[in-house]
Write a structure and sequence with these properties.
Blueprint: H1 2-15, H2 71-82, H3 84-90, H4 95-112, H5 114-121, H6 136-164, H7 171-213, H8 218-226
Helix pairs in contact: 2-6, 2-7, 4-5, 4-6, 7-8
Keywords: Membrane, Transmembrane, Transmembrane helix
Length: about 230
Amino acid sequence: MLLTAIQLVPWVVFMNSAYVVGRGQTPGDHLDLPSLVTMISPWALGTVNPYGDIYWYLPDNLVESMSYIGAASLVLVVSAVAMARRGRAALPQAAWLFLVISTAVWLVLIYGGGFPLKVAQSLPFLFSDNFVGRSRCILGFLLAALAAVGLDLLLRRRAAAREDGPDAADAAARRRRRWGLAWVALVWGSVAAAGLFVFQDARRQAYLVDKLSGGGSPRLDKLTNEFGLAG
């Protein structure tokens, strides 16, 4: 705590007189949803290679938009959220809940903006004068933690299945299992729906840029090919 104070107090004092003219932020200053496709396909929206096929075309630059964590990590993250009861039991009290809620909040702030971001920007210093997209480092840390939790839970479940053999649970356990399966279906269904929405939004963005450039549909084709959906 003392070390934190030693670091934060001078920073707060400095920010009271720091030159931040022109860096004011609005609720609309956030990353576009299509940039989320870079979570599993980093070059789906182009690169910054001047000799490449497609140049990055979203409004915010690639450095501040790239959100890559990999498909395997994303599966582990969703697994950690889906196995809620096991996650709460395996982690210290409220740790699972903290990770899930914090991740959801940062996702909304970084990619959704709107009223939640407006509230955050009413706080001094941090959000009012800095682009929220740079908070991907915090989001990445939370996602990495959830991925680790997901991997641990999957390994524990596999080990438990080997030891216990066929499940001969009582009625209460069967009810818990049904509720657990319903939660798993809800989580994976929500992620699938959100992913489809983001992908369609990315397709719309690619189509609009292609239309403005008047040179066929190279961006839309690249996006489709990156996800193996070419006709």
